[in-house]
Q: What sequence folds into this?
């Protein structure tokens, strides 16, 4: 940047900090929004629903099958309140949403179990709402290994194979990605950051213009790049406070596993926060007044929440929506956060999601600096 | 006199917004160390002209220099050496006086920032209020803050856009004393105002109406070029007399000032013949030097006839 001076950048940063400190309402909003969202998405929308309607289609009514069904019932997740005799009937129940699950116990279940052939129990799930089915499915996985241990004693003991005597085949209908319960809270991180960071900076320049302070700023030697970056830096810290709040809640209230490296997550979050702040700054150079700026921010926020894979499974969306979603930083950040927290991904695995955010940041920042007028023409 | 003896030296400066010409071919020279008054009705283009001088707007047509820097290409250099006080208060209301000054001082990278801020607080009598938020200040104090802020980087040229609007007479007087002190120290000041007493305190003046520069020079020169004749009438029954005079050919202004009436017109002979018509022994008529206000109103009326 030609003529860039750190002292001027620093002047803007300090000024923004003081203004941020004085503006209690905005500051409160920036802390309040993550808390509100966590409550809404985390608690109000039950993340560990139990007693889900389940239909059973048992072709084998033997003792092993009965043990299995009893164990499922006592796990608390499955309410075995329907019985289906044919596949068509089971299908219908699932399709109509009468049941969340159908358990298919094959005819030769007991026979194959005794032969040590690991018979397959097919569990069909209506996974449209992954938050509903996820916990039940994980409970089932845990239970399948141990459920028959009591029955398999004496001469049958060798059948307690390491991999479990029964093979559960889970067929998640309507949701190819098969998202788990932990999806929502990490996903919230990107949503909260998009919501607050974009709005806060969208107002940054329009406010200066509306209050008349812009004319003064333009009359000093300060450069556009210095004003932009100076307005972005203080809010990066705010973004980090939000990230930390969500991570704490994820850990202590929602027991979200954190398999990957938190420093890596914080490092990538920096990039994502900067991208959103730059987006806001760009809006604020385009908008004529604060109302317009807020509208633009909302316009950006909606696809970020709807098309990023937060609300609906990404791969389940039509191609155009996926394409649009891929342009949004939140889509990539969502995958990064889930990848790091839930799958323990490292830098190598998340790298393909980093560069789109970088590219977005570069483009948006260029537009912002180009749009920021040095004169009042 | 060489070009650099002028703090401002522009010729034919024109600015259009859409198809409306807001500043039309204005030429202006302001000598260094001079207090130059810039007058004209609202919307005549004063603010726009000043913005072109300090690099906030680029002229559509016209050339010139400000402090020796080309107004088209050296806007960054101009900004460094000019102090611009905007018409509307444009410092941060949610920052204290000291924080505002400190912010500006940092932007200019002043070598001894703290001292510069302290010094400007002291000189403008703001020391006791330095922690007060700018938004809580009254008009007069806001104006002081703005002046302090645009002086902090020791500019060579001060552009003041209606600095005393809404300020009480005592504060205005003090403000002007300060301006004269600064000019005595070598600073050049271009100041816009609507107050005649302030216009009289300028070394030289320019009068702008509808984007056109209608008159310029010292107060005496401006008054002389207007060629306006003014009579003062005293006596009883002035309101009916005023009504009788208004609208007569040759009478341009009939203005009541307390117990007197000012009657003026550009054509001295015509005016005198009208006066001869209405003259009665009960009234005393005196021909006086036209005041600046009479001159400006006459200029504006003349311009209205020409441009609208
Ligand atoms: N940025 C702008 N865009 C369009 N019109 C403008 C702009 N700035 C000023 N004007 C118009 O130019 C005219 C002159 O304005 P201004 O220079 O502020 O006059 P003054 O300062 O003498 O009152 C006004 O009619 C105003 O509406
Ligand atoms: Mg003006």
A:
């Amino acid at each position: 940047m030609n003529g860039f001076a750190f002292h001027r950048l620093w002047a803007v940063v300090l000024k923004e900090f003081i203004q941020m400190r004085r503006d209690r309402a905005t500051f409160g909003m920036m802390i309040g929004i993550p808390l509100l969202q966590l409550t809404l998405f985390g608690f109000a929308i039950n993340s560990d629903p139990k007693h889900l309607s389940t239909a059973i289609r048992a072709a084998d009514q033997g003792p092993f099958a009965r043990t299995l069904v009893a164990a499922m019932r006592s796990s608390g997740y499955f309410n075995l309140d329907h019985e289906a005799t044919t596949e068509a009937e089971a299908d219908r129940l699932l399709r109509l949403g009468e049941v969340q699950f159908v358990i298919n116990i094959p005819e030769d279940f007991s026979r194959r179990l005794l032969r040590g052939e690991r018979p397959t129990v097919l569990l069909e799930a209506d996974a449209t709402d992954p938050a509903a089915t996820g916990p039940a499915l994980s409970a089932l996985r845990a239970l399948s290994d141990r459920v028959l241990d009591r029955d398999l004693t004496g001469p049958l003991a060798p059948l307690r194979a390491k991999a479990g005597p029964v093979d559960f085949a889970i067929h998640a209908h309507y949701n190819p990605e098969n998202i788990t319960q932990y999806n929502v809270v990490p996903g919230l991180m990107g949503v909260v950051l998009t919501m607050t960071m974009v709005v806060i900076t969208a107002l940054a320049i329009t406010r200066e213009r509306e209050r008349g302070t812009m004319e003064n700023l333009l009359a000093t030697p300060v450069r556009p790049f210095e004003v932009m970056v100076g307005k972005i830096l203080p809010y990066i810290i705010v973004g980090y406070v939000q990230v930390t709040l969500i991570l704490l809640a994820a850990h202590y209230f929602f027991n979200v596993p954190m398999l990957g490296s938190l420093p890596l997550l914080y490092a990538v979050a920096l990039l994502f926060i900067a991208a959103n702040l730059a987006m806001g700054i760009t809006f604020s150079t385009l908008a004529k007044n604060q109302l317009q700026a807020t509208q633009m921010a909302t316009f950006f926020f909606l696809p970020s929440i709807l098309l990023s894979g937060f609300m609906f499974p990404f791969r389940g969306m039509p191609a155009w929506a996926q394409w649009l979603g891929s342009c949004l930083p939140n889509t990539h950040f969502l995958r990064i956060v889930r990848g790091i927290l839930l799958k323990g991904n490292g830098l190598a695995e998340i790298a393909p999601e980093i560069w789109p955010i970088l590219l977005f940041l570069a483009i948006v920042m260029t537009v912002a600096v180009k749009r920021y007028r040095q004169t009042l023409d | 006199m060489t070009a650099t003896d002028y703090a401002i030296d522009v010729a034919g400066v024109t600015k259009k917004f859409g198809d409306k010409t807001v500043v039309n071919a204005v030429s202006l020279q302001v000598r260094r160390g001079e207090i130059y008054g810039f007058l004209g009705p609202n919307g005549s283009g004063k603010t726009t002209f000043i913005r072109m001088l300090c690099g906030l707007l680029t002229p559509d047509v016209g050339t010139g220099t400000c402090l020796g820097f080309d107004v088209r290409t050296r806007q960054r250099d101009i900004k460094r050496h000019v102090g611009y006080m905007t018409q509307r208060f444009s410092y941060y209301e949610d920052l204290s006086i000291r924080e505002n000054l400190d912010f500006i001082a940092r932007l200019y990278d002043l070598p001894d920032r703290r001292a510069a801020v302290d010094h400007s607080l002291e000189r403008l009598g703001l020391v006791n209020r330095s922690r007060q938020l700018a938004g809580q200040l009254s008009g007069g104090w806001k104006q002081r803050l703005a002046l302090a802020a645009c002086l902090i980087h020791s500019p060579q040229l001060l552009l003041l856009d209606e600095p005393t609007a809404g300020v009480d007479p005592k504060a205005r007087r003090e403000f002007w004393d300060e301006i004269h002190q600064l000019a005595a120290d070598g600073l050049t000041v271009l100041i816009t105002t609507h107050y005649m007493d302030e216009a009289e305190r300028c070394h030289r003046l320019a009068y702008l109406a509808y984007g056109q520069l209608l008159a310029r020079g010292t107060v005496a020169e401006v008054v002389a070029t207007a060629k306006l004749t003014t009579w003062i009438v005293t006596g009883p029954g002035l309101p009916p007399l005023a009504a009788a005079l208004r609208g007569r050919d040759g009478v341009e202004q009939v203005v009541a000032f307390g117990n007197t009436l000012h009657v003026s017109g550009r054509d001295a002979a015509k005016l005198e013949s009208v006066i001869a018509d209405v003259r009665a022994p009960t009234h005393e008529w005196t021909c006086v030097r036209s005041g600046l206000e009479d001159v400006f109103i006459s200029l504006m009326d003349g311009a209205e006839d020409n441009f609208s």
